[in-house]
């Protein structure tokens, strides 16, 4: 693993994100400078994806790990996105990112796995997709492996360029963009419904307080009127 000059990714995501160095890795193709530009760019672009209306669930989850190489993360399964323990899911996302950075997947890992989630941690990372290509899987085989994960994928321009220059075809990238998106939209809609429900509850409470206040004022006026007579 090589080290090189730190690239700082800063963004406003759910209030704030932790700033930390992003390192290149000799196990992935490209020199340190190229890796830094691509991976650092991935981090910044994913921060925007975290605020995307249609990808709120996976975007927030992946964005939480941006500060320490979260750019390696490109997919997450249903349990990670919709689970109640969000803190644990974010910690697991961070762990997956760190693992991909320290110990990238290798072509030989593909033979031992049934899906594109080569280490079966509930996430798919850039290095795992690169390993699929390096293992000489056909496009159809790669798509099948990716589909079998049941994960939702969010690819940025940086990520697509990174994978494309590593031999991943446009056909595979197109399939990844469209894969399991119905679930992604459903998860986002669920988040919106919860927010809307909370807003309605608050509005209802506010209306109730307003009615109570008006009743109190009316009662006070009636009491004062009775005293004058």
Automatic annotation (TrEMBL):
Protein's UniProt keywords contain Metal-binding: no
Keyword rRNA-binding carried by entry: no
Top-rank taxon: Bacteria
Region (Disordered): 83-116, 183-229
Signal peptide: 1-20
Keywords: Signal
Listed Basic and acidic residues bias regions: 199-229
Residues annotated as domain YMGG-like Gly-zipper: 33-76
Protein name: YMGG-like Gly-zipper domain-containing protein
Species, as recorded: uncultured Phycisphaerae bacterium
